[in-house]
Amino acid sequence: MTALSRYELLEAAGRYFDGQTANAREVVVRFGDASLILMTMDDMPITHWSLAGLRDRGAGSGTLSLTPDDESEERLVIDDDDMVAAIRAVCPALNEKPAVPRSRKRRVVFWTAAAISSVYLILFHIAPALSDKLATMIPPEAEAAMGEQMVEQFTELLSDGEPRFCVGDEGEAALKKLTARLTRAGNLHTPLTVRVLDNPMVNAFALPGGQIVVFRGLLREVDGPEALAGVIAHEIGHVDARDPTRLALRAAGTAGVIGLLLGDFTGATVTVVVAETMMRSGYQRDAETAADDYAAALLSSEGLPTSPLAKLFDSLEEDEGKMPAFLEHFASHPNSANRADALRDKDAIGDEPFEPVLSDQDWVALRNICK
Amino acid sequence: MTDTTDPIASATAPPLSAPTQDKSVSPVYAGERGVLFRLAFSRMMLTIVTLGIGRFWMVTRMRQYYWSSISVDGAPLEYTGRAMEKLIGFLIAVVVLAAYLLVVNLGLFFVGLSVFQGHPAALQLPLIALIPLVFWAQYKAWRYLLARTRWRGIRFGLESGAWGYMFRTLGWWTVTMLTLGLLYPLMQIKLSRYVTNRCVYGDLHFEQTGRLGPLLKSWLWVWLPLAIAIAIAIMVAVGASGAVDPDELERSTAGSILLPLLVIPLYLLLGFAFLRHSVFSFRYLWSNKTLDGQPFMTVELGAWRVIGIYVGGMLLIALVMLGLFIVFAAGGFIVAMIFGSSPEAMIMDAQQNGVGVGVGVGIILVFVGGALLYLAAIALLVGLSHAFLQHPMLKAIAEGTVFPHPEVAARAHQRPHDPTAEAGGFADALGADVGAAFG
Questions:
Q1: In angstroms, how far is CA A314 from the centroid of its own chain?
Q2: What pLDDT is stored for residue A265 in this prediction?
Q3: What are the chain B neighbours of A105 within 8 Å (beta carbons)?
Q4: Residue B9 has pLDDT above 60, yes or no
Q5: Rounded to whole angstroms, how far apart are CA atoms B41 and B387?
Q6: How, if at all, do strands A211-215 and A193-197 pair?
Q7: Which of A124, A127, A141, B421 is the most buried (most CB within 10 A)?
Q8: B contacts of A127 (beta carbons < 8 Å)
Q9: Residue A237: pLDDT above 50?
């Protein structure tokens, strides 16, 4: 203990707090044998603290606020520069943090597992199952009202200015004819409202309450009425599965759950948005695949080919270009090439003749519904 | 300070042995700007890299530093909270809140859908369901904060009462809104009483004294101009809608030109009045607390001082950030010149020639680099705000504070450890952490 012997004669004042009361006791501090000795002002020893166990609970510079060990509630405040320097010199473990108890580590493991699994269960099992159940319990009037509100909001978002639905008389009659052929079985829970939006995008969507919106751009893109019938059959699949309502409920039910996981730190918002997009797209992709299957079954039962719809997906893929594989997690729709292949596999007609869904005259009228 | 070159001499005339009876003391804040910046910046980077989990370590370290930099009557405050217990508290909160959110979200959405007939307002209902919990969580977080604070080895504490605090806060907010904001100071003093009267140092109780009068008087400087302005605005709006006469219409157009000239000073006035009231109520409520029946502390802090700290600090931070932005923008420009390609050009190129893998990777690299810079800028911002906002603020408060009866605290006896297992985790998960300014 050569370092210690250098400070053998060093003495300094300190204030001692016994951990029982806040009363300060003025003490004299000096080094003993591998220890710090605390004495009263008239040299009566109060206690010995082992140098190895000594910890500083101060700011790490200037004044020391010492404790004999992690558990102790006693404190000794020293601000004598020489004594502070001496203690820093002989106690290398002075600034060591209290050890984390084993029980706390076990609790971290347990609660991490609990938090991850509960969030996983809620996001991927409980919320989907509950929303699917609740979607069937919403009163039809409420669902219809919600659908109308959403159509208004969506179309406004997608249009410059006032959204316009196309209302060519002959075109509408043709659209009705096409829809009627697809809903002949009459097993849908809600009546359909199929409309054409005057918008150049190649798109179509279904909203709660049997609302189906087809974009003018899609009418121009498809090769013939069978491809359009395929698209509408796909949207009817969404309506039949109550996808719009289910997905709205899932989104509502899981709102904020991912936000909880990331809590309150700067930059979290971006991460939350990315994670929620991934999750919703995951829900959506499953729904799209199911709607494709529904469309294939519906077309086949009506004696219609699925290959025109498959061809539409092929041409969409050419327009989109290939997406890097990892970005597919963010896409709300499955890969178009895979969808086209799946549809072709289910084609029950092939090259056989079939009863066209619309006459040439009707098809021309429908294509020009927006003129 | 006595002569410290002779250890024996300093032992006989120790600087700390002066009796403190009947002598008021001021706290000493010895935090250093550079240390604070370094701690906050590095811990914030860690927080970002760990997707937020590092924040528990950051908050713990920052609090340790702030606490131990404040000493009163020769003994520093001590923060004994641990990062790991905060993590556990947060995980517990996630389990509970995820289930709560699911049930409440779906329930309210379903009810809202049926009641509001699909009106989009129904989608806002779930947010309202979290508000009461925020108050509850705040109280819990204060409790954790106090239970992990020591001075002279003795613990502070907050007795239980989170539910009571939640209901009272909801009630007083309702009262405040029903009186169009007039009784806001009544809520301030009532809630402060509720919390302060549950605060303890060891076995000694704090108590909030003080009356509504001074707070209300200060508040009227905010409330009256606001009320008058709103009344005039309503009158003008009613008058303008009734104006058919061309003369009157002309006058109201003149009014619409004059309006911004009136509105901007009004905003400034209201902003100043509100800040002045906040500073006043802070000073008034803290200067009217007692510990074991004796006045606890007095705080002197002027509104202009606070404005000076905030405006000066923010200007400085803005200048630093702007300077760095210019440096990086210039750097990016030079790099683009050297390689003859900018992100836009790369995207254009990709559109023309199809997205090749190499170009795709390039775009991703630019994107990732930009994101990293953005995150580093956030860490810088956090570091600077500790160094140039929190630090001078705390310094000003410490300088203006006096404890008139430090001898009272010496009567305190130790209180047992309060486990507070949730450790502020609910407030953290709800994004409503208290003491966020100091960590």
A1: 31
A2: 46
A3: 84
A4: no
A5: 10
A6: parallel
A7: A127
A8: 102, 106
A9: yes
Q: Are A281 and A329 in contact (CB under 8 A)?
A: yes
Q: Residue A14 pLDDT more than 80?
A: yes
Residue B247 — very low, low, confident or very high, per pLDDT cuts 50/70/90? low
d(CA A172, nearest CA chain B) in Å: 28
Secondary element (H or E) of residue B83:
helix B83-116
Higher model confidence: residue B154 or residue A278? B154
- Over residues B363-382, the pLDDT tens digits come to 677 778 877 888 888 899 99
Average pLDDT, chain B: 83
B366 reaches A (C-beta below 8 A):
no
**Interchain CB distance below 8 Å, B201 and A22:** yes
* More confidently predicted of A284 and B280: B280
A74: alpha, beta or left? (left if phi > 0; alpha if psi -120 to 50): beta
Interface size A-B, in CB pairs within 8 Å, comes to 240
Phi and psi at residue A218, in whole multiples of 5°? Answer: -70, -40
Tell me how far apart the alpha carbons of residues A19 and B414 are, in angstroms, rounded to a whole number.
7
Q: Kindly identify which residue of chain A lies nearest to residue B80, measuring between CA atoms.
A: A57
Torsion angle, alpha carbons of A212, A216, A218, A222, to 10 = 120
Q: Given phi > 0 = left and psi -120 to 50 = alpha, else beta, which region is A321?
A: left
* Helix A225-240 vs helix A169-182: crossing angle, to nearest 10: 60
State which amino acid sits at residue B380.
L
Q: Does B370 touch chain A (CB under 8 A)?
A: no
Question: For residue A13, what is the nearest residue in chain B, using CA coordinates?
Answer: B11
> Which amino acid, one-letter code, is at B308?
G
Single-letter amino acid, residue A340: A
CB contacts of B414 in chain A (<8 Å) are 19-21, 73
Q: What whole-number distance in Å separates Cα of residue A146 and Cα of residue B117?
A: 6
Q: Please give the structure tokens belonging to residue A41.
A: 């002002």
Q: Tell whether B8 is within 8 A of chain A (Cβ).
A: yes
Inter-chain CB proximity B118 and A108 less than 8 Å: no
CA distance B275 to chain A (A): 25
Residue A67 three-state SS: strand
CA distance B382 to B376: 10
Instruction: Quote the minimal CA–CA distance from B281 to chain A in Å.
Output: 28
What is the Cα–Cα distance from B223 to B130, expressed in whole angstroms?
A: 29
Chain A CB within 8 Å of residue B65 CB: yes
Say if residues A365 and A171 touch (Cβ distance below 8 Å). Answer: yes
d(CA B32, CA B38): 10
Chain A residue nearest residue B89, CA to CA? A111
Q: Which pLDDT tens digit goes with each residue over A28-57?
A: 999 988 899 999 988 899 999 999 889 998
- Hey, are the CB atoms on A20 and B413 less than 8 Å from each other? yes
**Residue with the larger pLDDT of the pair B400 and A128:** B400
Show Cβ contacts of residue A53 under 8 Å, excluding neighbours closer than 6 positions: A68, A69
pLDDT value at position B14? 42
Tell me if chain A has a CB within 8 Å of the CB of B16: yes
CA distances from A181 to A10, A191, A224, A346 (A): 102, 14, 16, 20
Report the pLDDT value the prediction gives residue B32, as an integer from 0 to 100. Answer: 93
ipTM of the complex: 0.77
Report the pLDDT value the prediction gives residue A271, as an integer from 0 to 100.
59
